[in-house]
Each structure stands twice: as structure tokens, then as C-alpha cells.
Write a structure and sequence with these properties.
By secondary structure, the chain is α+β, with helices and mostly antiparallel strands. The chain is 56% helix and 18% strand. It is built from 13 helices and 10 strands. It has a 6-stranded mixed β-barrel, surrounded by 4 helices. A hairpin with a 2-residue loop joins strand 2 and strand 3. The longest helix has 44 residues, at 251-294. The chain starts with a helix and ends with a helix.
């Protein structure tokens, strides 16, 4: 207790300097807690979004490269084969592009215009909140009708009802037949910023009749996904004569890949935040060295009247640790408070596994970076300490 009392008195002698020294630790701890929470929130959002597609959804994507074989609408139709693929219930061809949407005097850069068929809505669990979906006849007749995501409808029409209104997509007029129910954002991608139109209409007016960007497949049941994946692979390998020309991913694989990417991103962010903790520790060393220099006379007198080396060492170690603990406590409070607010559309998810280690590391930083100044103070000889004071005078 005597050591802690001396340490507390030493820190309160210069309150402003002590407060500034803790700032680096505070920022570092808060950054670690907040960035880990944002990473967890992003991972949870992606998982929710992928699980929202359904547990029996598969995505077929073509390989990239100039020599890669392309997917066609005939390939999509071939997958719906009761004999060759009894576990495939539906397959929807998908083409995607970007476009500038104009309604009246309002212009909006649409990040995703999707051309597909009616089954796509069932497969991806998209339902209309207003109006209706386009029909199979619309696809056959290549009618220029479109279903808007809720974010797009709000941007273009505000509070007005967009159903029945006209919208220009890259100058081509489409009629809005419905607005989708809200799905939410997954961080970089917002599922509500989309316009979905008949495949034939999009190919006829926006993308041309080229290859598909994707085929979305619905398995007959969640426990039939593996069988459906094998059947899709067999059919497309036979049609394209190249097993490397495409890849098939189911919801579980998409979820695993997305979570792996998010975790890597979180680790990188945490590493960046940890660097600020390191900088804060260097600041503790610097300030403690200054403190030791300023208090050489005090150290000399205490050692001259019999203070042991351990008492001097413990006092300065306690000062450095108290600085770090105080900074760590403030950092925890700041990080927890900051995680109550959305960051770039992501709701942070706090976990104790980030709070406790960050706080413990802040204490260890005080011990580690305060050990050299404390050892230097404890190693001073009384005669040298008193002589140093006289020389400085």
C-alpha cells in the first residue's frame, strides 16, 4: 500500500502530463474493442444475409479468363432435368450490370440491375412489399418491366408509390411493377439497392445476348444440397467438356467463405489498432524516463535514508502500471460506448473475448514499458543521485 500511495502521489503531481500519457493507451484499447466489434457485426450480417437466401440454394459461377467456357441459358435449362438431376427443383439464369436510373428529375446510379426469371424470387426469398413480381409471360415477351429494391424506390420516388411509374435504365424505359421487401445491407453490398427485370428484357436492352454471370439453383430440400451439387457438376461437366469451367457453391460454403474473409479483415484491423497500443506504450516509457530524471533528488534522499532497491523499483513500476490501467479503463468505456452506434451501416457486436484481453494487455504494457525507467531509477547510487542534483543546480 505504501508503494501505491507513493505512486499515486507521483502521478497526481503533474495531472496534465499523466492524462496525456494515458491517451495513447485509451485510443489503442478503444480501437481494438470497437474494430473487433465491427468485424463481428459484419460477419453476423453476412451470415444473416446468406442464411436468408435459404439453406437449399446453390450458385453456379463461370471461371474467369479469356479462354474460359461461358455459361448460357441452355445450361441453366439443362439443370432442371427430373431424370438427370432429380434433386434440382429450379435453376434461374442471371445476368447483372450497372445502370443509371432516372425517374422524373431524379437520377440514381444503380449498382446492380439483375436480369433473371420468375423462379429467382422464390429461390432467393425475395417477396414484394408493394405491387407484384413480373410474370413468366413478361420474360417470354421480353417486356420491359422491373421490380425495384426498397432503397432504389426511395431514392427515385421518395414517398410516392412507384408502382405503375416509368423509370429509365441507361435511357431505356421500364415500367415499375413492384417494390421488394427490405432485405438489408451486408456491409459492402446492399441487397436493397437492386432492380430485377426479365432476363430477356435486360439482355435485349442493357447487356446483350452474351454469357450468364451466374446460375442460381434451388435444391429440392435442404438435405438434398450435396446431391444436387453433384448432379449439377456432372451435367455441366458433360455439356462444357471442362470441369474447371465453373464452380458450384452452396449456402454453407458461401457462408464459410464470407466468414473467413471477414475474420481475416478483422484480424488486420485489430493488428492496426494494436500498433496504436504499442505507440502508447512507447509514450509511457518516454514519460517515465522524464519523471525519473526530474525526481533524481527524491530518489537519492530516499535511498540515502535506507529505502531498498525494491521499493524504488516497485514505485515506478506501479506508476507506469497505474497509467496504463487508467488508460485501459477509459479505453474500455470508450470502446463500449462507441460500439453502441452503427459504423458504415454495420451494427457492432461486442464480445467479452475482445474486452478482457485488451484491458489485460494495457496493464502488461505498463509493466513492460515501465520496467526500464523503473530499473534505471532503482539502480541509481545515492551519492550519484544527490551529486546529479547539485550539478544541475
Amino acid at each position: 500500500m505504501e508503494v501505491l500511495r507513493f505512486a499515486a502521489r507521483g502521478l497526481t503531481t503533474n495531472k496534465l502530463r499523466s492524462a496525456l500519457t494515458t491517451l495513447g493507451i485509451t485510443v489503442g484499447v478503444a480501437a481494438v474493442i470497437l474494430l473487433v466489434a465491427v468485424g463481428n457485426g459484419a460477419s453476423a450480417k453476412v451470415a444473416e444475409s446468406i442464411e436468408g437466401l435459404g439453406t437449399n440454394v446453390l450458385a453456379v459461377t463461370p471461371a474467369r479468363g479469356p479462354d474460359a467456357r461461358k455459361l448460357s441459358t441452355q445450361d441453366s435449362k439443362a439443370l432442371v432435368d427430373p431424370l438427370g438431376a432429380p434433386d434440382v427443383q429450379a435453376a434461374s439464369p442471371v445476368v447483372s450490370t450497372q445502370a443509371t436510373a432516372v425517374a422524373g428529375q431524379t437520377s440514381y446510379d444503380l449498382p446492380a440491375v439483375t436480369g433473371t426469371d420468375l423462379e429467382y424470387f422464390t429461390t432467393t426469398n425475395r417477396v414484394p412489399a408493394r405491387g407484384a413480381l413480373f410474370t413468366a409471360e413478361d420474360v417470354t415477351a421480353a417486356r420491359k418491366v422491373v421490380v425495384l429494391g426498397p432503397a432504389v424506390a426511395e431514392e427515385l420516388f421518395g414517398r410516392a408509390d412507384p408502382v405503375g411509374q416509368k423509370v429509365l435504365l441507361d435511357g431505356i424505359e421500364f415500367t415499375v411493377v413492384g417494390v421488394l421487401a427490405e432485405k438489408g445491407s451486408t456491409g459492402e453490398r446492399n441487397a436493397d439497392e437492386v432492380a430485377i427485370a426479365p432476363l430477356t428484357a435486360v439482355q435485349d436492352s442493357l447487356t446483350g445476348y452474351g454469357s450468364l454471370d451466374q446460375i442460381v439453383v434451388r435444391a429440392a430440400a435442404p438435405d438434398a444440397v450435396s446431391l444436387a451439387q453433384a448432379e449439377i457438376t456432372a451435367i455441366l461437366t458433360a455439356r462444357l467438356s471442362d470441369a474447371e469451367a465453373f464452380s458450384v457453391q452452396n449456402s454453407a460454403e458461401l457462408l464459410e467463405a464470407s466468414q473467413s474473409t471477414t475474420e481475416t479483415f478483422t484480424v488486420l484491423l485489430t493488428a492496426v489498432a494494436a500498433i496504436s497500443l504499442l505507440v502508447g506504450g512507447i509514450g509511457v516509457t518516454n514519460i517515465m524516463l522524464v519523471t525519473v530524471t526530474e525526481r533524481i533528488r527524491e530518489i537519492g534522499i530516499r535511498k540515502a535514508i535506507g529505502a531498498p532497491r525494491a521499493a524504488i523499483l516497485g514505485q515506478f513500476l506501479a506508476e507506469a502500471t497505474l497509467l496504463s490501467l487508467f488508460g485501459g479503463l477509459l479505453g474500455v468505456l470508450l470502446g463500449v460506448a462507441g460500439s453502441r452506434f452503427d459504423v458504415a451501416g454495420i451494427t457492432p457486436v461486442l464480445v467479452p473475448s475482445s474486452i478482457v484481453p485488451a484491458f489485460v494487455v494495457s496493464a502488461l504494457i505498463g509493466l513492460f514499458f515501465g520496467s526500464y525507467p523503473a530499473a534505471r531509477a532503482a539502480g541509481l547510487r545515492p551519492i550519484d543521485a544527490l551529486r546529479h542534483e547539485e550539478e544541475s543546480l
